[in-house]
Amino acid sequence: MKLLSSIGQTNTLSAKIEEKNNFYVVFDCQREDFLVIKTVRKIK
Questions:
Q1: What is the pLDDT along the chain (44 residues), one digit of tens a residue?
Q2: CA angle, 6 as apex, 26 and 34 as ends, to 5°?
Q3: What's the CA gap between 33 and 44, in Å, rounded?
Q4: What is the pLDDT of residue 2?
Q5: What pLDDT score was predicted for residue 22?
Q6: Residue 19 — left, alpha, or beta (φ > 0 → left; ψ -120 to 50 → alpha)?
Q7: CA–CA separation, 39 vs 25, rounded Å?
């Protein structure tokens, strides 16, 4: 969960992470009216 804290103010309790290729796709479900999707490049 250290990834979430480095992204910004993402609620770690409601966020879901999906790993696609070399990217992390973070779905922030903190707001019920919309989804905030953040794409973060995976650091090798």
A1: 455 555 555 444 555 667 777 777 766 656 555 556 666 776 76
A2: 35
A3: 34
A4: 52
A5: 72
A6: beta
A7: 5
* Angle at 34 (CA atoms; ends 29, 36), nearest 5 degrees: 60
Domain boundaries, the chain: 2-41
Length of the chain: 44
**Which 3-state string (H, E, C) describes the chain?**
CHHHHHHCCCCCCCEEEEEECCEEEEEECCCCCCCEEEEEECCC
Q: Answer yes or no: are the C-beta atoms of 4 and 25 closer than 8 Å.
A: no
